[in-house]
Amino acid sequence: MALLAKRLGKLCVAQNVTLTTAESCTGGGIASMITSAAGSSAYFETGLVTYSNAAKTRLLGVAQQTLDAHGAVSEAVVNEMVRGACRESGAQLGVAVSGVAGPGGGSAERPVGLVWLSVGSEREQRAQRFMFPGDRQAVREQAVREALIALILRLSR
């Protein structure tokens, strides 16, 4: 994943883009990988770990109505997380992730391994749904990897 972080950094520098992260189930793993690349202070603004719904509302402005209607692990919530992270940090590009890493906490509607990821700006976001296999660590690592790839793809188009 270090190579993905380096590639992301090169794209950010070349395009003069700043980044922010809003993480739940990954617990700061995306921000950690981004900042593992030397020189990341040139493009990385903030990393917010908003594990609780209250933190998502307080720090990112996720509407309580959205959480009530869709649940924390949803397309609507990760899109609001990206908007809020970009708004609060001033970054041009953000990534947000929320999921059920396990081993508990899953349900028929939101099973263990379900992760929603969104990449975008304050104005426009694009979310993806993933079902990752494996234990808690594997789900988290796959989510971090896919977040880095999604950011790279966004900057490569």
List the defining traits of the structure above.
157 residues, alpha/beta, 5-stranded mixed beta sheet
What's the helix and strand layout?
Blueprint: H1 2-15, E1 19-23, H2 29-35, E2 44-49, H3 53-60, H4 64-70, H5 75-89, E3 93-99, E4 114-120, E5 125-131, H6 136-156
Parallel strand pairs: 1-2, 1-3
Antiparallel strand pairs: 3-4, 4-5
Mean pLDDT: 97
Going by CATH, the homologous superfamily would be CinA-like
Helix content: 40-55%
Helix count, DSSP H or I runs of 4 or more residues: 6
Instruction: Tell me what portion of residues adopts beta-strand conformation.
Output: 15-25%
Order of neighbouring strands in the sheet with most strands: 2-1-3-4-5
- Which term fits the overall shape? globular
* Helical/strand content category: alpha/beta
Please identify, by name, the CATH architecture.
Answer: Alpha-Beta Complex
Largest sheet: 5 strands, mixed
The structural domain count equals 1
Highest CATH level, the class:
Alpha Beta
What is the number of strand segments? Answer: 5
Unreliable stretches (pLDDT < 50, length at least 5) are none
CATH topology: Maf protein
